[in-house]
DNA sequence: TAAGATACGGAACGATCGCCCCGCTTGCAA
DNA sequence: TTGCAAGCGGGGCGATCGTTCCGTATCTTA
């Protein structure tokens, strides 16, 4: 009857601790190396056995997804903050560049976002949805006050974000985007001919 | 004495044929699937054994590099053509978007170009150098006539290219860049404040 | 504190993949 | 045509990696 109800059996203290440790370590490692790192490496750095990782996350992809979901929600929270404290134009651009920076420092996130348009193994769909809605809001507000050109859909900005992440990552740690930032920003504002 | 001289032992007819077949097949397969495809897959599709692939290309990376080098030289040739037949602004933008399209349809090339800034296993350095020089030329000409904003180095445009490839690839086959193309183009022209 | 449930570690399994080897085939020259 | 070097196929080796399994250690509860 209540089969679809989450069975909330409370975890044992050490289990909860280990789970958190694994999640945190996975974030660091995926951020540094991308999805490609062996699970054993994560387990080793977290100071647990591989079996422990698999007890908490049924599969490598599930672990990755959990990490990405965290990061995405983090960004959504940032957006809420920006909406409350900045004017629409500022909020939009601040969010956009914050997203780019996040992706530049987190290879795993960048990979996940770049793949999210594809068929297979998309990251947590609800998280992506929330992210998109948030982004859409910010965009609409910015467009309403003329800070961003019209004729731009969320998908466009989402794609632009992926592109900027790729640029930033391409640059490596040697300096940020520099002029490229201006180029994109000018383009988004809407160049009058 | 002549140790560094290329020993040009003429290949046997079937060997030359096979080599060409492998190269061609590798291009198709890398383009479709990226560097990740197993060598055996390429061998199978080319109708040869894995051993044959390795006789002609000492390593998987070497094969990949040969393919990428081909594509890069192809682009360089296109650039020469554009310089001869178009005005500087047109030539630059045509080349830029041609590069983006090339990368969008060729996953292997896109991967190679995105990685080229990194330390390990960079693609054929001379080809990259030629490509950069060509690109630099086109850029300088376009800047000289005011078709592209100043303060932009080759590296900037190179990074922008990588970013646009990522966008285009993110979009998938469902339509091209659309508005994003305008955004980038406007940004490159130089937004007046 | 003792019993039982829960979680742990890490060895082991199976699949994948890059690369090598060797017995056989094929093109080329005399 | 024949001899032989050059080339070929594909099975196999070793390494990597995701995932599972199970004997042991640890937490919880009574």
Name a few traits of the molecule.
homodimer; 193 residues; mainly alpha; Arc Repressor Mutant, subunit A; Tetracycline Repressor, domain 2; 2 domains; 71% helix; 0% strand; disordered N terminus; DNA-binding
Roughly how many Å apart are the termini of chain A? 64 Å
**Proportion in helices of chain A:** over 70%
CATH superfamily of the largest domain in chain A: Tetracycline Repressor, domain 2
Q: Would you give the CATH topology of the largest domain in chain A?
A: Tetracycline Repressor, domain 2
In the CATH scheme, the class of the largest domain in chain A would be Mainly Alpha
Order of helices and strands of chain A: HHHHHHHHH
Radius of gyration of CA atoms of chain A, rounded to a whole number: 19 Å
Q: Report the CATH architecture of the largest domain in chain A.
A: Orthogonal Bundle
Unreliable segments of 5+ consecutive residues of chain A: 1-5
Give the percentage of residues in beta strands of chain A: under 5%
The biggest sheet of chain A amounts to:
none
Number of domains of chain A: 2
């Amino acid at each position: 009857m209540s089969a679809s109800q989450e069975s909330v059996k409370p975890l044992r203290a050490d289990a909860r601790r280990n789970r958190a440790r694994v999640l945190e370590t996975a974030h660091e490692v995926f951020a540094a190396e991308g999805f490609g790192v062996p699970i054993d490496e994560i387990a080793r750095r977290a100071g647990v056995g591989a079996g422990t990782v698999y007890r908490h996350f049924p599969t490598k992809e599930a672990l990755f997804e959990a990490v990405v979901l965290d990061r995405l929600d983090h960004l959504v929270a940032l957006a809420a903050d920006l909406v409350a404290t900045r004017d629409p134009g500022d909020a939009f651009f601040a969010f956009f560049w914050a997203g780019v920076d996040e992706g530049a420092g987190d290879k795993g996130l960048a990979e996940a976002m770049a793949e999210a348009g594809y068929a297979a193994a998309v990251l947590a769909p609800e998280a992506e949805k929330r992210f998109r809605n948030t982004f859409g809001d910010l965009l609409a507000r910015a467009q309403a006050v003329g800070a961003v050109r019209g004729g731009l859909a969320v998908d466009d900005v989402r794609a632009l974000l992926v592109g900027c992440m790729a640029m930033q990552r391409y640059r490596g740690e040697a300096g940020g985007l520099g002029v490229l930032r201006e180029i994109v920003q000018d383009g988004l504002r809407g160049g009058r001919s």
